[in-house]
UniProtKB/TrEMBL annotation:
Its main location: cytoplasm. The keyword S-adenosyl-L-methionine does not apply. Belongs to the eukaryotic diacylglycerol kinase family. It comes from Chelonia mydas (Green sea-turtle). It comes from the Eukaryota. It is found in: Cytoplasm; Membrane. Its EC number is 2.7.1.107. It is a single-pass membrane protein. Keywords: ATP-binding, Cytoplasm, Kinase, Lipid metabolism, Membrane, Metal-binding, Nucleotide-binding, Repeat, Transferase, Transmembrane, Transmembrane helix, Zinc, Zinc-finger. It catalyses: 1,2-di-(5Z,8Z,11Z,14Z)-eicosatetraenoyl-sn-glycerol + ATP = 1,2-di-(5Z,8Z,11Z,14Z)-eicosatetraenoyl-sn-glycero-3-phosphate + ADP + H(+); 1-octadecanoyl-2-(9Z,12Z)-octadecadienoyl-sn-glycerol + ATP = 1-octadecanoyl-2-(9Z,12Z-octadecadienoyl)-sn-glycero-3-phosphate + ADP + H(+); 1,2-di-(9Z-octadecenoyl)-sn-glycerol + ATP = 1,2-di-(9Z-octadecenoyl)-sn-glycero-3-phosphate + ADP + H(+); 1-eicosanoyl-2-(5Z,8Z,11Z,14Z)-eicosatetraenoyl-sn-glycerol + ATP = 1-eicosanoyl-2-(5Z,8Z,11Z,14Z)-eicosatetraenoyl-sn-glycero-3-phosphate + ADP + H(+). Gene3D superfamilies: 2.60.200.40, 3.30.60.20, Probable inorganic polyphosphate/atp-NAD kinase, domain 1 (3.40.50.10330). This is Diacylglycerol kinase.
Length: 569
């Protein structure tokens, strides 16, 4: 009896140990299982969502959090996350995606004509989620003030109207495309063009005159990889305001293909807004030169710039700003393009001939819009590009990019890799040999700005030198003593070494390897001869709305020079 009594506690102790081990194991495994199950369900939903997005006619994008109070256009429930269409602005809950595809049509880029010629179209109303501070076109009171799905917005003219103000006459009323009618390509225009091409008629001018006076349709070319990566957001905002066929992502389609849309428009009517850095602008201007080679001169567009890059010197010169970070609404950008003045920009041919036997010489040809340089600034650009190619994800911010440039500039102040440049090169301006002082760099300028916002040729502005112009067929050639001298010029504490102005520049690199750059594209160059000659003009748009003091003085000087030229003629 005593043995049986003593055998009880050990078995209960073993049971307690197993129970503790079991619940400990459950507490460890259960969260892992739940996490894996949730991850599986999330990935499954993502696959289903991508499949719907791929098959849909809407340009759906998913967001984890809407930026303003949003209601599902299908079930009318308040939603924090869901999908929205970048073209028509439709917002839906994830579970309502398929219903939205069945019941709501997206913006039509081209009307179905059935052989008929259309010159107008009705409004396309979508209910709910109207823009903040919008007003009813009927009663002029604010729309979207109630906490529910309410009021209507036309996807073309962006007019809004209250539920109670919506009348049958409004539903059938012709849409006049609102404030930006002069920039929008109407869907019925493209359908009529399609019919005319089938009939082998190409008189687009008469067709356009019947639609709208002073029609200057715009084409948006956005580089989503430029500078601060704002291109993706801008694409959606422009698609809302314009015909989606006018908006192109340059990471998916080349400028040459996108610009073929100009051939469907009246002669000399199109305008192009390039959203990107100076490199993207040069890419687009090269594509426009290809249009000239193809015999499409009559369709050449005028080019405006929305600066998304790091330097943006060409944008600064044409008064479009030093950089865009979303501070100006997209609507204002389109107004600026409508009000901009047309100007001509000199473009230059940079020919680099490597030294060697006559039949073994290698020839490199570049097109220059901004500047050519040899020396410390080219070395900074070369180091920057080398590191950006290795880790591109780290260079997604304009501030970080400029900080990296500053680091390499400081390093060169100590190392001085480009010293004694005057012993390594010979410089000729219009065939005349120039005696060089003890320099580290030579910069050949076509525009007023250089190095991310510095007016290099003017320097401190205390000496009576003619201002640099972008349309006079002349290049300004300046020298710098080193990276520290460049920094002094940037903050207007020093003047550059002004070597002269010329129509043709020839530079001979004798027997060493030096960094060079054309418009921010750097490379290391051995012994060679660099020849810069005038190539052509580009049709650009100058934003005359907002100017700095430097810009105003530069423009007044240029206008005075033009007036003097006219008087002489």
């Amino acid at each position: 009896m005593e043995g049986e009594e003593n055998s009880g506690p050990p078995s209960s102790g073993v049971f307690a140990d197993w129970s503790l081990a079991f619940w400990t194991l459950c507490s460890v495994i259960l969260p892992v299982v739940i996490t894996l199950w949730c991850s599986f369900q999330r990935s499954r939903r993502q696959v289903l969502r991508r499949d719907i997005f791929r098959k849909s006619k809407h340009d759906w994008h998913y967001t984890d959090l809407f930026g303003q109070p949003t209601y599902c256009c299908v079930c009318a429930q308040h939603i924090l996350q869901g999908a929205f269409c970048n073209c028509c602005g439709l917002c839906v809950h994830e579970g309502c995606l398929k219903k939205a595809d069945r019941h709501f049509l997206c913006k039509e880029i081209m009307m179905r004509s059935n052989g008929e010629v259309h010159t107008s179209m009705a409004h396309r109303w979508i209910r709910g989620n109207v823009p903040l501070c919008s007003h009813c076109v009927v009663c002029k009171q604010q729309c979207g003030t109630q906490p529910k799905l309410c009021d209507y917005r036309c996807v073309w003219c962006q007019h809004t109207v209250h539920d109670e103000c919506m009348q049958n006459s409004l539903k059938s009323e012709k849409c006049r495309f609102g404030e930006f009618r002069n920039l929008i390509i109407p869907p019925y225009y493209l359908s009529t063009i399609n019919q005319m091409r089938k009939d082998k008629r190409i008189d687009y001018g008469k067709l356009a005159s019947s639609y709208c006076k002073h029609w200057t349709p715009i084409i948006i070319l956005a580089n989503t990889r430029s500078g601060n990566n704002m291109g993706e957001t801008l694409l959606g905002e422009f698609k809302i305001l314009l015909n989606p066929v006018q908006v192109f992502d340059l990471s998916k389609i080349s400028p040459a293909k996108a610009l073929q849309l100009c051939t469907l428009l009246p002669y000399n009517s199109a305008r192009v807004l390039v959203c990107g850095g100076d490199g993207t602008v040069g890419w687009v201007l090269d594509a426009i030169d290809e249009m000239k080679i193809k015999g499409q001169e009559r369709y050449i567009p005028q080019v405006a710039i929305l600066p998304l890059g790091t330097g943006n010197d060409l944008s600064n010169t044409l008064a479009w700003g030093a950089g865009y970070a979303g501070e100006v609404p997209v609507e204002q950008i389109l107004r600026n393009v409508m009000e901009a003045d047309g100007i001509k920009l000199d473009r230059w041919k940079v020919q680099v001939t490597n030294k060697g036997y006559y039949n073994l010489r290698k020839l490199k040809v570049f097109t220059m819009n901004n500047y050519f340089s040899i020396g410390p600034d080219a070395l900074m650009a070369l180091n920057f590009h080398a590191h950006r190619e290795k880790t591109p994800s780290l260079f997604s911010s304009r501030i970080i990019n400029k900080a990296v440039y500053f680091f390499y500039g400081t390093k060169d102040c100590l190392v001085q890799e480009c010293k004694d440049l005057n012993k390594k090169v010979e410089l000729e301006l219009d065939g005349e040999r120039i005696d060089l002082p003890n320099l580290e760099g030579i910069i050949v300028l076509n525009i007023g700005y250089w190095g991310g916002g510095c007016r290099l040729w003017e320097g401190m502005g205390d000496e009576p030198y003619p201002l640099a112009r972008y349309d006079d067929g002349l290049l300004e050639v300046a020298g710098v003593y080193g990276s520290f001298h460049c920094a002094q010029i940037q903050v207007k504490l020093a003047n550059p070494v002004r070597l002269g102005q010329a129509h043709t520049v020839r530079l001979i690199l004798k027997n060493s390897k030096m960094p060079m750059q054309v418009d921010g594209e750097p490379w290391a160059q051995g012994p060679c001869t660099v020849t810069i000659t005038h190539k052509t003009h580009a049709l650009m748009l100058y934003h005359s709305g907002e100017q700095t003091d430097d810009d105003a003085s530069s423009m007044s000087e240029q206008e005075h020079t033009r007036e003097q030229t006219d008087e002489d003629i």
